[in-house]
Amino acid sequence: MKICLTIAGSDSISGAGIQQDLKVFNALGIYGTCVITAVTAQNTSKIYREKFLNENNIIKS
Question: Mean pLDDT throughout 33-55?
């Protein structure tokens, strides 16, 4: 089985970012893994908040 890593932000409505990457990997028969670099609070028409994760926290993972 092929494995692919995506490094991106999380999109809470799953239209982009990590969630969409993992959907595409699955459709292609690829096992997806991820590193989340940011999170958002949003809906389909507006981004209310975004939070970029501290680089040190990502590296320690």
Answer: 92
Helix ranges (DSSP H) in 1-61:
17-27, 55-60
State both tokens at 28: 């292609």
17 alpha-carbon distance from chain centroid: 4
- State the CB neighbour count (10 A cutoff) for residue 14: 12
Answer yes or no: is pLDDT of 56 > 70. yes
SS3 category, 1:
coil
SS3 50: strand
In this prediction, residue 61 carries a pLDDT of: 57
